[in-house]
Give the backbone structure.
Amino acid sequence: MDPEILRSSFAVVERRAEFAVKYFYSHLFRHHPEIRGLFPLDFPGDMERQRDRLFAALTHVMERLEDPGLPRYLRELGKDHRKYRAEPEHYAAVGASLIAAFAVVAGSAWNAEVEKAWGEAYGAITNVMLQGAWEAQQHGEPPWWDAEVTARTRHGDDLVVLTVRPHRRLRYSPGQYVSVNVPHLPGIWRPYSLANAPRADHTVDLHISRVEDGLLSTALVRQTRKGDVLRLGAPGGELTLRTPVERPLTLIAAGTGWAPVKALLEQLDDTYEARLFLVARDTSYLYDRGAVERLRARLPRLAVTFITPAPGRPKAQATERLLTALGNRAGWTRHDVYLAGPPKLVEEIGETLPSFGTPTERIFHDVLAPSGQGNPRPVGAAEWLLDRPQPSWHNPSSRAPQV
Ligand SMILES: NC(=O)C1=CN([C@@H]2O[C@H](COP(=O)(O)OP(=O)(O)OC[C@H]3O[C@@H](n4cnc5c(N)ncnc54)[C@H](O)[C@@H]3O)[C@@H](O)[C@H]2O)C=CC1
C-alpha cells in the first residue's frame, strides 16, 4: 500500500465527493441490482446520509493509514457489517464500483499506478474486515441480537431510557456502544452507548436523545413500547476503563454522553479517586440524578460537578462553563480523562486538556464509526461559505420523567 499515492488521489476525489458518491451508487446498483436490498433505499433522506457515511468512513481510513489501530477498527467494522448481511461478493462489487467512480472523478490525476494502489489498498482493507466478520462467526456471534424492551422511562418529549434484554448474552466492556435498529425501519442503524456494567439478567440500558428529523431516534423515543423487539449490532468502541486503581481519573459527560460514563463509573470500586463533570443544556436535562447520587454514596472518593448554562443562556454556554471549571482544577498531569458527548464538545475539550497538562495519550474518547449524520457535506470551501451548515441542536421541551 502506498499511502502517498492513495492520499493525493483521494484529495482530488474528495473535492468532488458529492459527484463521486452519486456515480459510485449508480454504478453499483446498475451492475449489481441485487445489492440494492442492503441499502436504505426506502428512506431517501437516509440514503443521502448513507452516501455521506461512505465518504466519512473512507476519510477515516485515509487519515489512519499508518495508524497501528487501523486493523482493529477494520475488524470491528467487518464484524459490525454482518448486520447488513454483507457477503464477500458484495465487498468485491463495492470495490469495483468505487474504483470506477474514482477513475471518472479524478480525471487526469488517475493512471495505472494509482489504480493499482487503490486496488491493492481496497483488497487489504476488505481482507481485514472479512477476517473480523469471520472471527465473529467462529465465536458463534449472531449478525445481530434481538432485544426485548423490558422497561422504558421517558424524560420530557425528547429523551428516553430503554432497558432491553438481548435474546442471547451480549459480550461487551462497559463504555462500549452498539448500533441499534427497529425492524420496521430496515437498513437504519445508529450507534448508542450501553449505559451499564454487565448485569446478571443480561439487560442493558440505552439513553436516547431525539434528534430533530432523526428517523431512528424519533421512532425510539416516541413509538417504542415495553415488549417491542429492537436489534442490536455487535458491541464496539474503545472507551473502556484502562486506569489502574492508583491513578486518579476525570470523567466528562455531556448530554446522553452520560451513558458510557455511567457504565464506566459502575465498574469502579471505592478505592478509586475520580471526578465527574456532568454537562447538560439545562437542569431539566440532568435526567439521571438518582443514579449519580447512588454512585456518590458508593464511591467516597468521587467528586461530582454539574454544569448547565446560566438561566436563559444558550446551551453552548455550558461548554464555556465547563472549560472554566476544568481550568480551576489541579492535578491534570496525573489524571486519565474520559470524554463522551456531542462530537464538537469532545473535540474542543480534547484539544484544550493538553494545555492544562494532560498528556494526549491519557485522554480517551470514542471514535464512533463515522455516521455521516447531521448536515450534508459541503462540496468545497466556497459552497460552505455560501451555504453554511446549521448547527444540529435538538429542540426538546421539558424533561420531567414520565413512564
Ligand atoms: N461515546 C460517546 O461519546 C457518546 C456520545 N453521544 C453523543 O452525545 C450527544 C448527546 O446529545 P444530547 O444529549 O442532545 O446533548 P446536548 O445537545 O443537550 O448537549 C449537552 C451539552 O453539550 C455541549 N454541546 C452540545 N453541542 C455542542 C457543540 N456543537 N459544541 C460544543 N458544545 C456542545 C453543550 O455544553 C450542551 O449543553 C449526541 O451527539 C450523541 O451522539 C452520546 C452517547 C455516547
Summary: The radius of gyration is 22 Å.
